[in-house]
Amino acid sequence: MSRWAWALALVSGCAGAPAGGEAAPVAVRAKESTSPSAAPAPVPGEVPAALLPEDRGPFFPSLTQVTGRVTGADLADTTACASCHTEIAAQWQASAHAFASFNNPIYRASVERFRTARGFDTSRFCGGCHDPSLLVDGAMDAAVAASDPRAHSGVTCRTCHQAEHATFDGNGSYRLSATVLKGPDPEDPASVAAHKVAARPAALTTAQLCGSCHRAFLSEATGQPHYLPGTDDIGPWLHSVYAGSAVMRIDRETSEQTCASCHMPNEKASRIDPAADADGMVRSHRFLGGHTWLAAIRGDEETTARVQAFLRGVVSVDVAAATILSSGPGGPGADAGEHAPADGAPVRAGQRVVFDVVVRNESVGHNFPGGTRDAQDTVVELQLVGSSGKVLAAPDEPHRLGSAMLDEHGVPQWAREIEDLRGLGYDHTIAPRDARVVRFAVDVPEDMTDWPVKAVARVLHRSRTEALREVTCAEGRSRAGKAYAATTAKWTGERIDACAEQPVTELARAEVWVGAGAPVPTDRRRDGERLYVRGLGLLHEVQEQVGRAGASFERALALVGEDDADLRAAIVAGLAAVAGQQGRAEAAAKLADDAAALAPGHPAPAWLKGQAYSAVWRWEQAIAPLRSAAEAAPRDPLAHAALALALGSAARPAEAIAVAQRGLKSGARRNYDLLRLQALALADLGGADVQAATASQLEHRPPDEAPDWRAACQEASPACARERVPVHTHALVWR
């Protein structure tokens, strides 16, 4: 038997599909051979060295490095910069970066618990991103006093502007220059010019600098028994159109975006600032994201309002279908079945109705919600409102967009108990430009007369889970919490209230009318688009139900005119994705070709064709289209992993390792699939690093106990059993 045993070790369907929802073979072997000599003979001097993740450094398990000596006092000092850059300093002072350290009670509640459980030195893992001023002085290895200025500094000017190098590895994988950035002589043009150059190191304008902290992982070095990926805003971005990868779907409505273009847009300066351009614009240093509660804790109403404005509209919501399951005691009637779109559905008294609510990530360049997904508390709800204006039905429990991390007993951890995290239970966040379907079922009473009924879907954002809010409030009321709050008030004048109410922000709303007297929409193109987006969400159904996505795409195609080539191409590509997931490779390839004819030059049809052939192990046929897709998405690690899988499974290890290493270099040094593909190729090629490569891929493999933890969660909790199903149903309770 060949040594190749290729596998894309991705989370199984009920625990969450691969990013973007593409199907992947679980285990595939190359063709049989009767002799080890069937493996290609090594070519002396041509076998590349293994690309391995960096796992050590002066501040490990943080990956932060310094060139020479950098002191915490230097990093913590913002006054030297603020003396000139008054606008930028004021913006930064209101940002989450300024409150990233122990002065943030949300973070402090989590990190102090982690330090108690795992030891001070282990918390260096946190320090590279939250506490660089403490980290570089070795102060994370001891108790941190509320009066220590370094514990209030957060991510400062010099942290970013002295970063001379950064990578996508995460856990603070940046390198600081030892040359302290100093202010220029304003009267000396040469000094000013030199300062501008020094203040813009090469790493500053890269996504790698942001990614060095907005990606994280746990490992044995942090007290976990195995490697565990954590926060990752970079992986989804690299696999999206925003990073130049258009392989997932045909989507003409977006363009490439960086972290800074979204989170640091140009803003009119209200103060004189030498960084302003000729029009008085500066790059915003507010770093707006989802931190509404942090702003409320600080009592900063202006920043709360800015964050809420930033968030509104980043997702859309739609009531896309209403399925009538019964017609009361008399049994099903002629109106039973699916009505899509839901507008005007002939709902009557005595029926059981299931509504499909579709949420789409419209403009977030990473998963939504992002950051620490298990701490997010964005919810999707559906209410039924009678014509009288009375709320008739509401969810017994809204659907939460977020993830659940489990401990070793399969119990979800809702308060950022980092020390106890062992594996992923489920993840309902939404990848860039992707969609998710949430179902709500209701039994309409026999005596219902308040017709027509308005179905109102909303997406509501809160920054953190209620469990995390409770522990944060308790920390704020502790002796240490009061000491930190007093120090913050003394130094900045801000009054920290760790028990402040969380702002609730309505991100999106949709309304449709059903029942007698309900209006019916007449915009066929718009309805076709709605059903296409619903189809994207239904691609996440379990394998047995993915045909529902096909039905939604077919209905969408019937509504869209022949002259709307882009939307028709997207819908046909959706049908190709369905056929590929169902194992109908030839049908998928034909549909992909049809989509390519409608959208010439777009890489998504090639990706879909390659994925379809890979799903049925037709590796040689998969290689050409997957190569075309990977070439069109040079920074996308998943595109390279798919191609490397096909090449290796076709007994072409020299090509496989070259492609796998391109994927590793693009920003996925800890991607298990790429590490595995590299190790297997080296084994076949006789590489000198095969032992180290094999050890690295084993170190990053998913834990063997993960299915047991998910099963325990499902067995112990009906809510967990429901949430593990990618598309599931919540009950509406009639009032």
Give an account of the 3D structure:
The protein has 735 residues and is an alpha+beta fold. The protein has 27 helices and 22 strands. The chain has three domains: 5-50 and 524-711, Tetratricopeptide repeat domain (Serine Threonine Protein Phosphatase 5, Tetratricopeptide repeat, Alpha Horseshoe), CATH 1.25.40; 65-296; 309-404 and 429-464 and 502-518 and 727-734, Immunoglobulins (Immunoglobulin-like, Sandwich). The longest helix has 17 residues, at 565-581. The protein is globular. Residues 1-44 have low confidence and may be disordered. This is Multiheme c-type cytochrome. Pfam families: Cytochrome_C554.
Shape: globular
**What is the CATH C level class of the largest domain, in words?**
Mainly Alpha
The CATH homologous superfamily of the largest domain is termed Tetratricopeptide repeat domain
Classify the helix fraction into a percent range.
25-40%
Distance between the termini: 64 Å
Brief digest:
This is Multiheme c-type cytochrome. With 735 residues, the protein is an alpha+beta fold.
Write the layout of secondary structure elements.
Layout: E1 5-6, E2 28-29, E3 65-66, H1 72-76, H2 79-82, H3 86-93, H4 105-118, H5 124-130, H6 132-135, H7 157-161, E4 163-166, E5 174-176, H8 189-198, H9 207-211, E6 215-218, E7 228-232, H10 234-238, H11 259-263, E8 266-268, E9 281-283, H12 292-297, H13 301-311, E10 315-327, E11 337-339, E12 351-361, E13 378-385, E14 391-395, E15 399-401, E16 403-406, E17 412-413, E18 423-427, E19 435-443, E20 453-461, H14 466-477, H15 479-492, E21 505-514, H16 524-538, H17 547-559, H18 565-581, H19 585-598, H20 604-615, H21 619-632, H22 637-649, H23 653-665, H24 672-685, H25 690-699, H26 706-716, H27 718-723, E22 729-734
Parallel strand pairs: 3-5, 19-22
Antiparallel strand pairs: 1-2, 4-5, 6-7, 8-9, 10-11, 10-12, 12-19, 13-14, 13-15, 13-20, 14-22, 16-17, 16-18, 20-21
